[in-house]
Amino acid sequence: MLAVLSACAPATPPPSATRAHPAIVSLNPCSDAILAEVADPGQVLALSHYSRDPRSSSMDVALARRFPATRGTVEEVLALHPDLVLGDTFLGPAARAAYDRLGIPVTQLPIAMTLADSRTQVRRIAALAGHPERGERLVARIDAALAAAAPPPGTAPVPTVVWQSGGIVPGEDTLIADLLRRTGFASFSAARGMRQADVLPLERMLADPPRLILIASDAHGDGDRRLHHPVLAALAGTRRETLAPGLLYCGGPTIIRAAARLRQVRASL
Known about the structure:
There is one protein chain. The protein is of the alpha/beta class. Helices cover about 40% and strands about 15% of the residues. It has a five-stranded parallel β-sheet with strand order 3-2-1-4-5, sandwiched between helices. Strand 2 (about 45-50), helix 3 and strand 3 form a beta-alpha-beta unit. The longest helix is centred in the middle third of the chain and has 18 residues, at about 130-150. It is elongated.
């Protein structure tokens, strides 16, 4: 099917000369959240279907549902006649080749691994949308949220495990790890040599408990039973709180919500 579409490149019109700003399709929930903030509503031809699902969205689901959604097939995107497609580094080579042959510009955005990466990504998407000033305003809001969530000077970081679905923990070189550092927490798993997506067994948690467990899972099935096991209540020196999984992976406006939640958790300790 991609080969057939590639042979039909003339069917896709070039970017409209009458548009003041490009019409954009986003294929990734992280770019969805940023694009919805910095583009005019009429510029957003579609967001990824992930952002309509509370289990995978990194933005307000009600906001995401105001826009059309796409499952990301080349056929769907072609029918929308975008001036630009925002993808990620996981976009398949066949799809990328098809977009190239069809003359549809694609920008592949890497995963933001740090807060600095996120600021860069916000500014890039805002510039692509033709509204760089909105990107600067969003960056200023992010920085204000981080400043509000920063601990008082001299405060000791709280040893914290972010425990995700299936018992996995995030690595040190991740956006959530950077955010934890900036808001007064220390990665308990990283201090013990655990890496991205390592599994933290319940037994190890009980034998060497942290000061705080942030349970980042909405599920309660067999795969997440350890995260909610009643025996955790016996850890008298350990506090358990929840952290929405959608706050872990994306930068942009997601950082504002994540910082506010971490500020709330730290204040409750």
